Amino acid sequence: MTAPETHKSAAEKAGPGNRAADFGIDTTARTTGEAIRGYLRGLRNGELGSLPALLGLAALFVLFTILDSGGTFPSLLNLANLLQQGAGRTIIAMGLVFVLLTGEIDLAAGTASGLAAALMALHLVSGGNMLGAMGGFVFAVLIVAMLVAAALAIWVRVWAGAVVSVLTAAILLVGVPANPWIEMLLAVGVGVVVGCLTGFLVARVGMPSFVVTLALFITWQGVILQLIGDGGTLGLRDPVINAVANGNLSTVGSWVLFVVAAGGYAAVKLLQQRARLHKGLVAQPTGLVLIKVGAVVVLGAVATFLLTQDRSPGVIAISGIPYVVPIVLVLLVLGTYVLDRTRFGRHVYAVGGNREAARRAGIDVVRIRAAVFVISSAFAAIGAIVYSSKVGSVSPAAGGGNTLLFAVGAAVIGGTSLFGGRGRVSNAVIGGAVLATVENGLGLLKQPAAVVFIITGLVLLLAAGVDVLSRRKSAAAGR
Amino acid sequence: MSEPILQLRSVSKSFGAVQVLHDVDLTVRAGEVTALVGDNGAGKSTLVKCVAGIHPIDGGEILFDGDPVALHSPSDASRLGIEVVYQDLALADNLDIVQNMFLGRERGRPWLLDEADMEQAARRTLASLSVRTVTSVRTPVASLSGGQRQTVAIAKAVLWDSRVVLLDEPTAALGVAQTRQVLDLVRRLAEQGIGVVLISHNMADVFEVADRIATLYLGRMVAEVPTRDVTHGQVVELITAGRSGDLGLARPEGVVGQ
Hints:
The complex is a heterodimer. Chain A has helices at residues 7-13, 32-44, 51-67, 76-101, 109-125, 130-134, 136-155, 159-174, 180-205, 209-228, 239-246, 251-279, 286-307, 324-341, 343-353, 355-360, 365-391, 403-413, 425-444, 449-478; strands at 234-235, 393-394.
């Protein structure tokens, strides 16, 4: 092993006999074999990450393919449908990861998404005339709540939250006519408003997030009921909104997506690897990186090829990658980038790992804790757009029921810790895929809802158990 | 003997009616380890917090490089190059060594951190302190031993071109071999020209690394003497009784001559 040039000066300063090559710290590049042994050691010490979920997903696929004698489960139509079914709640889970990373919980993410969906639908149905649709009093309360949220966001220094809250209020006040893109913006804006309120109560007032979000969970459910009316539904009759969860890319578009996504992934990984090796930094073995990149490119190509085939059982052809795939991918890349490469992301991990250390390091802990709730609610609203689009309407039950539990479960099953500090946005995607597969597969096996609920619950329990055990093992290995 | 970097002159501090520090003088010199000893409640922690800018002082003055300075907040202290390593270390377990060392002061743009620069700087700092016990700077702190954590916490304080480093009981929770490593590290800090203040209850540690010993007794600085001029027993007497022979507090009038 050779010592990088940069170390010489510092090492020489430290005194004779301390050449850089002497330092144990110089283990930057390892061979693939060493890396795999290191990984296995990490596994034994409880650093499981997404591995149990990935293995579980593979096992579920094999299991359902064998059990479903009709052959519906492994059919292309069903697999594409599975992606569309799970996407909405998976997106909610991706936002929840931010909250879970700080060691908090957002129980209101489900009904907050329902609220965003309800206001979006109401705006669309009323043609932008919200005042007429909900009455003067409710409208006034809503606008005041949005402006209060903006003020509270300024108080906790979440500037983006304040700007979006004011813009959302402005859209309602001006009475912008209905337009699918405006509706989606409005939904995200509502999510941000909700997040500002939650974040302020948790981070500034210092109430436990469990209590705040439990109270808001019930509150938003009431607001949704007030807006839609008991037993009512609001139809989302708009081709653009309808296409979000039901539409597909064209064949050419699908391959363009593949080239951009897989090529982008490969380019980023390989350039990063070259830069790290070049600068003498800690890097993974090149062989392992090549295997990973190769696997992603091959799997992506196979999936793209399959999804561009006609999967319709009828006469009208259905083909192409569903729109939800690029939507989830963009959010995944964005969330991963923010957590891994930005100062904000680093501070989110620090607050989750040791809040006191973060405070002493000069991190604005209040702002970080408030901001994660804004992100969570905004993601929840995007999830609401997707699941409402899938159903084609918004009912008072939107976002209620087990939406939230599914989202928390997805994040935890994927390997995000409920104790804070550990997790990635990709965990939510993998966990979401597991839960969607369970639901879809059991449904096809004609299992009653009771069985689906029980098994989903047990899977979640298992994941939480793995989290606790791995945490205990890594704590034991730490000292 | 080098120039004093940090000097405290008649520093007093009260919390309400309780006066914790009475006219305390202390001098910290570059390249020297000054041990600060005293029994529980003698005011060591308060003194450190005054220097760190956490508690404002009520009376007296603090001189840095010979100029009076006002320390109103921890950021005032760190701007001058005063860093404190607290007993509980304040490291985030889930972050790796580099991330911890740069926590709150990350390099690069807020929207794109410069990981390469941070990793190289962290390795240079650890190398300059001859730290050999860590296999990789990308190891999460959770998997480090107590001594390694202490090393990271100290290296974090050195990273910022510090002039004065205050260490609060750095060896309190460590085993023999790990104590050895940390004491070596303390010596190397001084060799690099940093003024080191070591708070410790362990006399063996103090006599091994300190150049000077400053003893606090009930909020008063009773002695500030070169280590070679005192014995183990004398320091213990200073800590427990406030005086030892000619050192320390004057004997009460009535006792003299008995």
